[in-house]
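Input.
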Amino acid sequence: MDEITQILNAIEGGDAHAAGQLLPLVYEELRQLAAQKLAQEKPGQTLQATALVHEAYLRLVGKDDEQHWGSRGHFFAAAAEAMRRILVDAARRKQTLKRGGDRQAQCLDDIEAPQINEDLLALDEAMAKLAAHDPIKAKLVELRYFAGLTGDEAAEILGISASTADRYWTYARAWLHARLHGK
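Output.
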């Protein structure tokens, strides 16, 4: 059992000091995941990787209700989901009229047009539909896309073979692409 799993078990057992020991061990990995996700966001994103990590960590460890993480992989899967929810909430807030949701931001120094990824809200809606249709494939997408895990790492967390994870990944990407592009 690795050190992170031991600390997660201590947190689950009610050790008040264990949460303080966990953050230094997972911080850099969570920050890299957050930076990857934010790099894929539309230009104008104001949320920073550090803030995303801290908010996700507080949602995971700072809750009064008990958390149950069976392993390091389970913790990172929960972190990926927390980051996804934070990004979706931020996108929803930006869309409100109070925050200028009816206006288009314009970049003044458009030397080259940035590549814009799928709208996060549309992706979230499609992910919810995929989860209703096939929860394991939705979880695989969440682990691969939001947590930045490899196919093998995600397969291990989900308890499926790597080849099954590859097939599920191919299916889920095609399914989401069809929903996002109206096909």
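The first helix runs from residue 3 to 12.
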